[in-house]
Amino acid sequence: MKKVLAIVMILTMLVSLTGCGKDKSVETNSNSKNTESGKKTVELNFLYWADGVQKTLVENACKEYEKQTGVHIKAEALPADETFDSYIQTRMASNNLPDVSYMGEGDMMKYNEMGILADIDDLLSSGKIPKKLDAVTIKSPEGKTLGVGLSNQLVLLYYNKDMFDAAGIEYPPTKVEDAWTWDQFVEVAKKLTVDVNGKNATEDGFAPDKIQTYGIGFNCLCAFHQFWAMNANGGGVVSPDGKNFLWDTNESIEGLQNMVDLVYKYHVASPSLYTFNSAIGSVDATIGSGGYAMYTNGSWDLANLSAIDGVNVGVGVLPKMKNAVTMNCGAPMAIYNTSKHLKEAKDFYAYMVDPAKNLDLLKTGAWLPNEAGYYTDQALIDSWTTNLPKDAKETIISYSTTDGAIAQWPAYFVPAYNKMNTEYTKFIDKALSGEMSVKEAFDLCMPTIKTLFESGTVE
Amino acid sequence: MIMRRRIRKYREALTGYLFALPAILGFLVLTLYPMLASLKYSFQKIDAMGTKKFIGFDNYRYILFDKSSEFIKSLQVTLFYTIINVILVVLYCLIIALLLNRNFRGRNLLRAIYYLPCVIPMLSTTILWKLMMQNQAQGGLINQLLLYMNKTPKEWLTDKYLIFVVLFAMSIWTCGGTIVVFLATLQDVPRELLEAARVDGANAWYQFKEITYQTIKPVLYFQGIMCMVTSIQIFTQSVALSANGAPDRMTYFINVMIYQHSFKDVGLRGLASAEAWAVFLVTLILTFIVFRMSGMFRKEEIKKSRRGRHEANN
């Protein structure tokens, strides 16, 4: 009996040990695969994150592509969170990178510095990929085109039309050139901020510590959610050519201070911190619940508008300080130059970044087209805007067709952005919580951040 | 005969070891090896490509002396959270367990109610509390209640001190497991002693101090140490609330920092290993102090009975 037991134990051990070994059959990445007829077909490994609609769309697009070209696509869907980049790193460590993958905005420069990203300039110059918006085209400091964003997510101003009607205030404009000045905006926010006794912030006896409805809420004040204010005030993080450090300029400081003042000076906004996780929620939870009259968030929230019952939500352009701008993000796709089938990978890439492949996402507003033609060509405009509210459509097109109205998130083109941002994160809450002025907080961190910028490298 | 017995003995030992083998291998491969490897990494600089370079004590020097290192602040907030949390949790659980140990109707229902929250994953708990504590305009229940009572709502989640109220509240809400352990231990308290004390006219406090406390002391301290270790490892709550230690790095606990350096930042994996080892040493010292502070794994009455025997012998 004991003997039998011992044998069983040993067998179990052996089996579990082989489990640790590398399973060769899994390694099909970018290898040629034998089809039934014995002919060799190319297989591309494509890594993306998605859930719900997006996953179905990507799967359908891949199937369609296989049918058209005979190239086999091994698509792997991962959850849309930070584990994605860890997964890429694991694959890199085992010399098993995919051919094409999605990539976090802030990771492009990192992988470029490692020299594993392919230049896709030829795809754009040959017209294989039609002209994309400048704001979603990612260029390396040495001028290589590393990828294009799949979507053109913009920061927009959402508002509760009913509250504007009740207060007798005109709706926010939908054209970049008509954007409210900052003073106009503050005035509107004051009128819409109401305390528990029904008094608004312009009236005597207003109780700033017992606010029932805030005039304005920021989804959060992390990264591009606050950088737009610096750009709007003529400052920014880094100049668009990536050469000049603008973060510590007076314009940037004043721009951000304007936003913080909305919370602690005018008491028209609820506090927000430098983290995406403590965001105040979607348009549904903020405007939909009646707690906020205006609210800034990315255009992806347009997809939630239809879920809101009983509240009329409008969309308009952000106010200006010196410039009327918004800021964008939108995860790019990248090709790895380690691919054994670079040509096929590039063809597949051109196919996948075509907005027509994501039409269902564009129609809801969850994504916005990355291609210039989709904002200027009437037939193309109609293909995705029919279900969007009129004001949302006007706002988006106005931003995307006005020169310089979309500031590019520095994560796209500043190699040192991530480490600059890490340093910034250590101090900026002191300003956002009203503990000290923006100037004082910047004095603490900007000298270090500037040296990090000057290093010009990711690491 | 002896030969045979020896063989049998060996065989028995072999079978024993074989049975233990999975656990031993598991420990070697999954615990000991990673620990030693991280000790090695802590003396290296590991870049994004995985290339390792030996840099001596530079990582340790950085975490202790560099002004942009957040190790000290992170350790401070972690220890602050730990100390208060251990005291709160142990006291709270003890009081609740003592109350639930009394005879009254609905006792079992109440026991279940106090235990229930601890089966909910910490992530869900955090999201739940976040929804409750957010500001009134977003529909935060607590703040709406305050506003309804004409009190000033509080910024629980964005204020750098009030955030700890939320963390402690969640910790207390989920400590049902400890309550159950205390309840079980309270069953060990000798009833005849309690009764005898009562007959002798001892009051409730004296009964608790001299009899109940002495019996449950080992478990009390053991739970305290366990609570200390899990408090030092606090992670989920902070990440679900802010991910970057907001407000103002007050929830940038040691594990959050190590995770950030190891898996999110580029080229800091060696530093993260050094931080992990520094924390390991701190935890070790703390545990040692708590152990020494109290001769707590011995029951008081055993000592007494020994002394009794000694006296009897005399």
UniProtKB/TrEMBL annotation, chain A:
<dbReference type="InterPro" id="IPR006059">
    <property type="entry name" value="SBP"/>
</dbReference>
<keyword id="KW-1003">Cell membrane</keyword>
<dbReference type="Pfam" id="PF13416">
    <property type="entry name" value="SBP_bac_8"/>
</dbReference>
<dbReference type="InterPro" id="IPR050490">
    <property type="entry name" value="Bact_solute-bd_prot1"/>
</dbReference>
<feature type="signal peptide">
    <location>
        <begin position="1"/>
        <end position="21"/>
    </location>
</feature>
<keyword id="KW-0564">Palmitate</keyword>
<keyword id="KW-0472">Membrane</keyword>
<keyword id="KW-0732">Signal</keyword>
<protein>
    <submittedName>
        <fullName>Sugar ABC transporter substrate-binding protein</fullName>
    </submittedName>
</protein>
<keyword id="KW-0449">Lipoprotein</keyword>
